[in-house]
């Protein structure tokens, strides 16, 4: 063991800006993802206010386009993805008995690039207009010809930067789960949440580069006058749709699989039963991940791909209902005969099941290509994907947050406020989106700024708006809950739900910096439960107590993402009429972009040249931690 | 996390996999290359979809491409893959000096390839095949240029690693870096094989 390297620890803001600790990065993801969730939610409320009555002019038509674009983009890329990464960071290493992720430094890069991309995207609101071509940014609407402001530039560049973060995050979790599992933690003993994190990471790895290429191509079209999607010079607008959805459909499964994992953990814990059909659950997860790559063209049935392609993609899409159905039945059978406790976490999990089934059923309806010609671009589609994303992923996330909050922060969230939140959010959700199925079937198109009186849309839209307000109210209750909770003492026990089954409940809440004082020996699925059933209160250690090696904090990830942020702005504003001054010369010659990239490359150079020796946490400090808790 | 365990005396046979950090790095890099495969796969798809969209009066692929130059570039790059294998073999037998020489030769080949590519692109531009000429030209320069940028990055990266080994020696920290740089170099070679076939040979034929 190499001793003598100085212990590097910062405190306060500097600690948060330089941390490479997966638990703190998880909290950073949660904070910023939560912030963007509120921004996206606010945009949703503005959309609903505009639509509450016919011929409303609460916001201008152009602003409405910006709102719906930014609502979708923010919710998918800046709220849902980081909140998934928050849970993965906070929990996956603990569930597999690891001291850290495989690449702690890369983990920090993942967070900071996501954050820089997210901020850059939202800067567009204050810089002459947000993107307004829908979250799918279909060409030619998004090409320079039809979108001459900088809005779409922010979209293509902001998402590229955020995408880097997601991609390296995915690689990190794949390597962590493959290489860092504790002794005895075989793949088929891994908790379900870790399994879904694993498959989601694999999907990220194979889906996000396609989006990157699409965004790069569109950026080249817009910034360097390329012709990928410019039909006048031989470009092909449908090519964008293909590239976008080859990423976009796996993205749907990237979002929903971790929610499946959370639900499996929560239902099993609060039914005090082993997860029913664990191996079929694993199989179904892998199968969904696999099929997720073969269905992208079901978003494009009306594009004119022809009956053969439509039929194939239609069948492939319907096939996904099979593994998903397996999961639904497994959850039901897990609850069957269990001693169920309806904590807030479990309410969200149990509420998830029928809600997600409804989203799944409309999914199969949409998969039927001939019928899809009727549903396409109507509110029926809006209802469908909100049922799977809000009714699926978001309910799953809230379930996971209530379940793991004590492990992340050492405090239990208030259950009464939690239940009020659940009912407001759940009822509000169904009020908002259930009626939209019928609005769609009655012919209301999606993405419209307003509608005429006398079409029969009025009442259903009003109900939908009231529902959205109710969801907003619920979210406020959740925020109050967080504030109330954070004022309480930090006294959660190791296993605050008392029925914890997996390794994260064997260590203090919140987990110490090094997670496990001694790496545990895993002797079966539901490792902790197995020990409990044999009358033990803690895991058998797999190693003697000794000094623990930790990576040093670093400010390079932060500066790397700042560099990319500056470069992004530089590329965007290189074109344009700035007169003849020095500033014009600087922008036209890409000096700003080169400067930004130079910062990033310099950080990479520094990281390569200067080895990080890390530091050791000595045995007496570990014992002291243990003593305090005992 | 036994990290940078100080190895006194001889390095293990595969120093890149001697530590958990090293094993993580190698695995993580394989995964990264998986993502890169999708990246280039998408670029190839875009090129294949657009390669006939030349536009009126612009030079076609058949008129533009000069196979002798491209064949020479291919030969150079493929040879550089071989020399990088020799470098890794020298690393495994702990012959630091010969490893460094093979790496230097690899970098020189990489630079030669880049020189030829710049010469080639310059010719094309003079023949009216600019980045913004047509969908064919945009997708051509993006695909081949992405590959060229990868070669450039590799050249810089391996040069930095050579300097590091000179300063720090070959150990369990530097060995995984050399090893993954070798993987990277093979990957951009494989991509080039596809570019040579799909872009240049198919461009000449059809």
Automatic annotation (TrEMBL), chain A:
<comment type="pathway">
    <text>Energy metabolism; oxidative phosphorylation.</text>
</comment>
<dbReference type="InterPro" id="IPR000883">
    <property type="entry name" value="Cyt_C_Oxase_1"/>
</dbReference>
<keyword id="KW-0812">Transmembrane</keyword>
<keyword id="KW-1133">Transmembrane helix</keyword>
<feature type="transmembrane region" description="Helical">
    <location>
        <begin position="192"/>
        <end position="220"/>
    </location>
</feature>
<dbReference type="GO" id="GO:0020037">
    <property type="term" value="F:heme binding"/>
</dbReference>
<dbReference type="Pfam" id="PF00115">
    <property type="entry name" value="COX1"/>
</dbReference>
<feature type="transmembrane region" description="Helical">
    <location>
        <begin position="381"/>
        <end position="405"/>
    </location>
</feature>
<feature type="transmembrane region" description="Helical">
    <location>
        <begin position="275"/>
        <end position="296"/>
    </location>
</feature>
<dbReference type="GO" id="GO:0046872">
    <property type="term" value="F:metal ion binding"/>
</dbReference>
<comment type="function">
    <text>Cytochrome c oxidase is the component of the respiratory chain that catalyzes the reduction of oxygen to water. Subunits 1-3 form the functional core of the enzyme complex. CO I is the catalytic subunit of the enzyme. Electrons originating in cytochrome c are transferred via the copper A center of subunit 2 and heme A of subunit 1 to the bimetallic center formed by heme A3 and copper B.</text>
</comment>
<dbReference type="InterPro" id="IPR023615">
    <property type="entry name" value="Cyt_c_Oxase_su1_BS"/>
</dbReference>
<feature type="transmembrane region" description="Helical">
    <location>
        <begin position="417"/>
        <end position="442"/>
    </location>
</feature>
<feature type="transmembrane region" description="Helical">
    <location>
        <begin position="586"/>
        <end position="606"/>
    </location>
</feature>
<feature type="transmembrane region" description="Helical">
    <location>
        <begin position="462"/>
        <end position="484"/>
    </location>
</feature>
<keyword id="KW-0408">Iron</keyword>
<dbReference type="InterPro" id="IPR014241">
    <property type="entry name" value="Cyt_c_oxidase_su1_bac"/>
</dbReference>
<feature type="transmembrane region" description="Helical">
    <location>
        <begin position="104"/>
        <end position="127"/>
    </location>
</feature>
<comment type="similarity">
    <text>Belongs to the heme-copper respiratory oxidase family.</text>
</comment>
<keyword id="KW-1003">Cell membrane</keyword>
<keyword id="KW-0249">Electron transport</keyword>
<feature type="transmembrane region" description="Helical">
    <location>
        <begin position="556"/>
        <end position="574"/>
    </location>
</feature>
From TrEMBL, chain B:
<feature type="transmembrane region" description="Helical">
    <location>
        <begin position="70"/>
        <end position="88"/>
    </location>
</feature>
<feature type="transmembrane region" description="Helical">
    <location>
        <begin position="27"/>
        <end position="50"/>
    </location>
</feature>
<dbReference type="Pfam" id="PF00510">
    <property type="entry name" value="COX3"/>
</dbReference>
<feature type="transmembrane region" description="Helical">
    <location>
        <begin position="139"/>
        <end position="166"/>
    </location>
</feature>
<keyword id="KW-1133">Transmembrane helix</keyword>
<protein>
    <submittedName>
        <fullName>Cytochrome c oxidase subunit 1/cytochrome c oxidase subunit 3</fullName>
    </submittedName>
</protein>
<dbReference type="GO" id="GO:0004129">
    <property type="term" value="F:cytochrome-c oxidase activity"/>
</dbReference>
<keyword id="KW-0812">Transmembrane</keyword>
<comment type="similarity">
    <text>Belongs to the cytochrome c oxidase subunit 3 family.</text>
</comment>
<dbReference type="InterPro" id="IPR024791">
    <property type="entry name" value="Cyt_c/ubiquinol_Oxase_su3"/>
</dbReference>
<feature type="domain" description="Heme-copper oxidase subunit III family profile">
    <location>
        <begin position="27"/>
        <end position="204"/>
    </location>
</feature>
<keyword id="KW-0472">Membrane</keyword>
<dbReference type="GO" id="GO:0019646">
    <property type="term" value="P:aerobic electron transport chain"/>
</dbReference>
<dbReference type="InterPro" id="IPR035973">
    <property type="entry name" value="Cyt_c_oxidase_su3-like_sf"/>
</dbReference>
<feature type="transmembrane region" description="Helical">
    <location>
        <begin position="178"/>
        <end position="202"/>
    </location>
</feature>
<feature type="transmembrane region" description="Helical">
    <location>
        <begin position="100"/>
        <end position="119"/>
    </location>
</feature>
<keyword id="KW-1003">Cell membrane</keyword>
<dbReference type="InterPro" id="IPR013833">
    <property type="entry name" value="Cyt_c_oxidase_su3_a-hlx"/>
</dbReference>
<dbReference type="InterPro" id="IPR000298">
    <property type="entry name" value="Cyt_c_oxidase-like_su3"/>
</dbReference>
<dbReference type="GO" id="GO:0005886">
    <property type="term" value="C:plasma membrane"/>
</dbReference>
């Amino acid at each position: 063991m190499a001793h003598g390297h100085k212990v590097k620890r910062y405190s306060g803001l500097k600690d948060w800006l330089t941390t490479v600790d997966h638990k703190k990065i998880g909290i950073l993801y949660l904070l910023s993802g939560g912030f963007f969730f509120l921004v996206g939610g606010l945009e949703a409320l503005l959309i609903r206010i505009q639509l509450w009555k016919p011929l409303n002019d609460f916001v201008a038509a152009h602003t409405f386009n910006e709102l719906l674009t930014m609502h979708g983009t923010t919710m998918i890329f800046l709220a849902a993805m980081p909140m998934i990464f928050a849970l993965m960071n906070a929990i996956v290493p603990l569930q597999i008995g690891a001291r850290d992720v495989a690449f702690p430094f890369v983990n920090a890069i993942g967070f900071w690039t996501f954050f820089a991309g997210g901020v850059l995207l939202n800067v567009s609101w204050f810089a002459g207009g947000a993107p307004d071509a829908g979250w799918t940014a279909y060409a030619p609407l998004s090409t320079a010809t039809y979108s001459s402001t900088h809005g779409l530039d922010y979209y293509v560049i902001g998402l590229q930067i955020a995408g880097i973060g997601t991609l390296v995050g995915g690689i990190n979790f794949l390597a962590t789960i493959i290489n860092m599992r504790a002794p005895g933690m075989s793949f088929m003993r891994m908790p379900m949440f870790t399994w879904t994190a694993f498959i989601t990471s694999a999907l990220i790895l194979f889906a996000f580069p396609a989006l990157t290429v699409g965004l790069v191509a569109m950026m080249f079209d817009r910034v360097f006058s390329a012709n990928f999607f410019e039909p006048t010079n031989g470009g092909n607008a449908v090519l964008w749709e293909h590239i976008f959805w080859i990423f976009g459909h796996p993205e749907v499964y990237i979002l929903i699989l971790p929610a499946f994992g959370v639900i499996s953990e929560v239902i099993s814990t609060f039914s005090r039963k082993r997860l029913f059909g664990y191996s079929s659950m694993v199989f179904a997860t892998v199968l969904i991940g696999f099929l997720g790559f073969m269905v992208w063209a079901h978003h494009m049935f009306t594009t004119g791909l022809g009956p053969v392609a439509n039929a194939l993609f239609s069948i492939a899409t319907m096939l996904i209902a099979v593994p998903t159905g397996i999961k639904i039945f497994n959850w039901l059978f897990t609850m069957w005969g269990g001693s169920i406790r309806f904590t807030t976490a479990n309410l969200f999990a149990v509420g998830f099941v029928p809600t997600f089934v409804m989203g799944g059923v409309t999914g199969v309806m949409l998969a039927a290509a001939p019928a899809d010609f009727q549903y396409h671009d109507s509110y029926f589609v809006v209802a469908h994907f909100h049922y799977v994303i809000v009714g699926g992923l978001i309910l799953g996330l809230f379930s996971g947050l209530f379940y793991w909050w004590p492990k992340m922060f050492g405090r239990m969230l208030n259950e009464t406020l939690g239940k009020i939140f659940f009912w407001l959010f759940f009822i509000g959700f169904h009020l908002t989106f259930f009626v939209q199925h019928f609005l769609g079937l009655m012919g209301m198109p999606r993405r419209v700024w307003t509608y005429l009186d006398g079409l029969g849309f009025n009442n259903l839209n009003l109900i939908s708006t009231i529902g959205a307000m109710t969801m907003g109210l619920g979210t406020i209750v959740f925020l109050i809950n967080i504030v109330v909770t954070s004022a309480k003492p930090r006294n959660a026990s190791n296993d605050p739900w008392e029925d914890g089954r997996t390794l994260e409940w064997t260590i203090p809440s919140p987990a110490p910096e090094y997670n496990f004082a001694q790496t545990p020996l895993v002797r079966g699925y539901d490792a902790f439960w197995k020990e409990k059933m044999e009358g033990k209160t803690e895991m058998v250690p797999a190693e003697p107590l000794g000094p623990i090696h930790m990576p040093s904090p670093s400010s390079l990830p932060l500066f790397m993402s700042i560099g990319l942020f500056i470069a992004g702005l530089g590329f965007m504003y290189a074109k344009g009429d700035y007169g003849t001054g020095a500033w014009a010369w600087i922008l036209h010659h890409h000096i700003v972009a080169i400067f930004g990239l130079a910062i990033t490359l310099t950080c990479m150079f520094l990281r390569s040249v200067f080895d990080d020796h890390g530091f050791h946490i000595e045995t007496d400090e570990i014992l002291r931690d243990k003593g305090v808790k005992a | 996390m036994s990290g940078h365990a100080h190895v006194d005396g001889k390095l293990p046979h595969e120093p890149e996999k001697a530590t958990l950090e090293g094993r993580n790095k190698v695995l993580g890099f394989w995964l990264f290359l998986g993502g890169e495969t999708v990246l280039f796969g998408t670029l190839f798809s875009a090129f294949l979809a657009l390669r006939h969209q030349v536009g009126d009066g612009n030079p076609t692929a058949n008129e533009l491409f000069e196979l002798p130059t491209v064949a020479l570039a291919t030969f150079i790059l493929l040879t550089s893959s071989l020399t990088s294998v020799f470098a890794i073999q020298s690393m495994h037998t702990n012959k630091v000096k010969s490893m460094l020489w093979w790496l230097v030769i690899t970098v020189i080949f990489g630079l030669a390839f880049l020189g030829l590519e710049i010469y080639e692109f310059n010719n094309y531009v003079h023949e009216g095949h600019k980045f913004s000429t047509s969908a064919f030209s945009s997708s051509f320069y993006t695909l081949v240029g992405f590959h060229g940028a990868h070669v450039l990055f590799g050249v810089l990266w391996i040069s930095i690693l050579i300097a590091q080994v000179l300063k720090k020696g070959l150990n369990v920290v530097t060995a995984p870096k050399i090893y993954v740089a070798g993987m990277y170099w093979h990957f951009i070679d494989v991509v080039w094989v596809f570019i040579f076939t799909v872009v240049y040979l198919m461009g000449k034929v059809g």
